[in-house]
């Protein structure tokens, strides 16, 4: 019999909700109160998220506020992402003794299998930067400026950016699947006086990233990506899903303890 997972669609929420919700899922799973989860969600308003240890002082919060964009720190590592025209996924599961890179590989294979159903031929990155030196460079600020091993690419360009954290044997991994191009505006919100440097960062993102709309030459919907991702995980993990949809705008994280997952 196939293992049962939860497929959870929480719709479009603000950054604080999205990050706290992921952490709370990991907490509930660690207590044995829920099964493994594949969650899909979006961001309203568009939001910049930064890694757990990333310096926020490089961002211009006045520009961010005036643009109506949110800002949040993730519970995972990695670099900055402007969450906009994308589908964000999160996975909560047991590590079963597998390393961080092994889980990255497993989840990335499921993502590739799913997105291939949309007509995309993707590959996994096989090499990665020397991040110790890379993070000293201004170009390291955006997540999509580089690829880690086993991240999802199209012809060498990054399509999915992911980050992972462990809570004992519990894995929390989430990531952005780019649908449109709005993420490229991230450099506009950096506190950098040099226009030349901002343009270099912008060029770096444009050179090294790609989105589904660009690959497929059509507008891809959030729902299309969600369904493809679901099928990819079913096939790669050999699992079955029970669907849950939480779209109530008044939904509070605390109520998660009370619903049947």
From TrEMBL:
* Alphabetized Gene3D superfamilies for the sequence: Bira Bifunctional Protein, Domain 2
The superkingdom of the source organism is Bacteria
Q: Where is the BPL/LPL catalytic domain?
A: 32-241
Sorted alphabetically, which InterPro entries does this protein's record hold? aa-tRNA-synth_II/BPL/LPL, BPL_LPL_catalytic, Octanoyltrans_LipM/LipL
Pfam families hit by this protein: LplA-B_cat
From the UniProt record, list the coiled-coil ranges.
Answer: none
Keywords of this entry: Ligase
Q: PROSITE patterns, alphabetically?
A: BPL_LPL_CATALYTIC
- CDD domains per record: LplA (cd16443)
Q: Name one GO molecular function term.
A: ligase activity
Mind telling me which PANTHER family this protein's record contains? OCTANOYL-[GCVH]:PROTEIN N-OCTANOYLTRANSFERASE, OCTANOYLTRANSFERASE LIPM-RELATED
Q: What name does the UniProt record give this protein?
A: Lipoate-protein ligase A
């Amino acid at each position: 019999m196939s293992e049962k997972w939860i497929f959870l669609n929480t719709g479009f929420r603000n950054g604080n909700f999205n990050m706290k919700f992921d952490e709370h899922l990991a907490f509930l799973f660690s207590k044995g109160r829920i099964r493994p989860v594949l969650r899909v969600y979006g961001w309203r308003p568009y939001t910049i998220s930064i890694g757990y240890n990333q310096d926020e002082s490089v961002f211009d919060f006045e520009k961010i506020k005036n643009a109506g964009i949110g800002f949040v720190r993730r519970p995972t590592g990695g670099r900055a992402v402007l969450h906009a025209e994308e589908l964000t996924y999160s996975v909560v599961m047991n590590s079963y003794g597998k390393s961080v890179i092994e889980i990255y590989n497993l989840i990335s294979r499921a993502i590739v299998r799913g997105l291939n159903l949309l007509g995309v031929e993707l590959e996994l990155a096989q090499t990665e930067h020397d991040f110790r030196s890379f993070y000293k460079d201004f170009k390291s600020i955006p997540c999509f400026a580089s690829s880690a091993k086993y991240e999802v690419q199209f012809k060498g360009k990054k399509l999915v950016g992911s980050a992972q954290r462990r809570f004992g044997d519990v894995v929390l991994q989430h990531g952005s699947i780019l649908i449109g191009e709005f993420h490229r505006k991230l450099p506009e919100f950096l506190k950098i006086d040099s226009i030349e440097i901002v343009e270099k960062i912008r060029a770096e993102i444009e050179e090294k990233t790609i989105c589904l709309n660009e690959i497929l030459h059509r507008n891809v919907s959030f729902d299309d990506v969600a369904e493809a991702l679901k099928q990819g995980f079913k096939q790669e993990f050999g699992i079955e899903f029970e669907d849950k949809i939480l779209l109530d705008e008044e939904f509070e994280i605390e109520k998660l303890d009370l619903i049947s997952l």
